[in-house]
Amino acid sequence: MADTIESQAPGKQPKSVRVVLLALMIAMMLAMLDNMIVGTAMPTIVGELGGLEHLSWVVTGYTLATAASTPVWGKIGDMFGRKGAFLSSIVIFLIGSALSGMAQDMGQLIGFRAVQGLGAGGLMVGVMAIIGDLVPPRERGKYQGMMAGVMALAMIGGPLVGGTITDNWGWRWAFYINLPLGAVALALVTAVLHLPKKRSKAGIDYLGVLLLTVGITSIVLVTTWGGTEYAWTSARIMELTGIGVAALVGFVFWQTRAAEPVLPLHIFKSRNFTLMSVIGFITGFVMFGATLFLPLYQQAVQGASATNSGLLLLPMLGAMLVTSMVAGRVTTNSGRYKVFPVAGGVLMIVGLYLLSLMDTETTRLTSGLYMAVLGAGMGCLMQITMLVAQNSVEMKDMGVASSSATLFRTLGSSFGVAIMGALFNHRVQDVMAERAGSLGASITEKSAQLDAKSLQKLPAVAREAYQHAVTSGVHAAFLLGAAIAVVVLVASVFVKEVPLRSGPAQPSKAEGDDNPAPAALIDAL
């Protein structure tokens, strides 16, 4: 016997729905934890496998594959069914995890991490799209708030788990740990999740996939290499920029002609969807920039230990978790949501501005309060953007809406790390040269980010100069973030609030079509 989502009163989902949501949270935890755990294990991995010069590609390969595959997974789910696409992504992720754990050199590890990334793109999209299928828009905020909580917990616990696993079991278990968790998610989804089957007569838009992949890959490489591996004005960066722009222009042109476009442009006719894409991009820009510079500031200036680096972000991530849960509950109870993007924009601007005021005398308590303000702002935005984006399209486009929202956030994070990082590095090098002369310039010539051991080896004068330099760099980076976050507030003001339905998961008449979507079916346990 089956229960339809439509038959359930708000807040009274059947037990089987809760089991599926548990599986979805495990799958999201896999994708979110992986980079955090692996990042902690990287020094040990390099010590055994060598290949220090290729270290960045262990992360870049994973990120590129995730970003490039995200829109493709969304479209595959729309065309051929969400369940099959999601299970396939889990299997690919687990294969990549097993192979990464067996890697014998850095080249193999990079290739296997790319396989992992292909699966991870489908995990993130699949979770959000399946929630969109199973849960009515009125209820969706509550569950997406839980997903934001999973994200925050992964960011806090990942480094701790990674350090513990590496120290006690060895770095290979940083990858093998995914296998039992993935097996549980795979078994639960296979046994319990039942969605309406789909079969599209149209073929996959291979040219669109190719153009989008080339465009996204070029953009991510530009933001990853620019100012680090290559100068921003170097021939390599200019070539990649040209290739990326040409590929994306060609992609947009082709999407107007393709029989089954991988990213239907008509979804951007919805004002709310377009605004949520912009807000998601900037949220990713700010969030990953903040997670990069805050631990650096606390370690270099406030003398915090790098061992428990995830705990340094606890005020920000804790506030994000609480606010996201509250936003989800309020949205579920009231059916209204516009207040949260607006409040999120205000809090984000204020939080970033306060963080830009930190100096060498700022206490951990004060910086923690500033981080909490920023976290509260991001908590108002993280999942509400996905909710509104999904509510703004027809059910047949749920997958591409979810993947597009995820993609814009991913691209925003790449740009945030690159642009804020370039500004930070420039300020650090300038201040070091001003305060410590040629010694300061030589210290930060190769990298503006020094680890704790390198910092302790510096002469007292150079160490004090570096603390002032980091403070100056953080000031510039967060001030830029505050200026860019103004766009979030402006975009939020123009959001058209369409009351969320409490019936079957389907688009509202204001943003979708008038035809009722088929209710998702789940077998009751």
Automatic annotation (TrEMBL):
In what residue span(s) does the Major facilitator superfamily (MFS) profile domain sit?
Answer: 20-500
Record keyword GTP-binding present:
no
This protein's UniProt keywords: Cell membrane, Membrane, Transmembrane, Transmembrane helix, Transport
- InterPro entries registered for this protein in UniProt: EmrB-like, MFS, MFS_dom, MFS_trans_sf
Quote the CDD domains the UniProt record gives: MFS_Azr1_MDR_like
PROSITE patterns attached here? MFS
| Spans through the membrane | 20-42, 54-73, 85-104, 110-131, 143-161, 173-195, 207-225, 237-254, 275-297, 309-327, 339-357, 369-388, 476-495
Subcellular location(s): the record lists: Cell membrane
Q: How does it sit in the membrane?
A: Multi-pass membrane protein
**What PANTHER family is this protein classified in?**
COMD, MAJOR FACILITATOR SUPERFAMILY
Q: What is this protein called?
A: MFS transporter
Q: What is the lineage of its organism?
A: Bacteria, Bacillati, Actinomycetota, Actinomycetes, Kitasatosporales
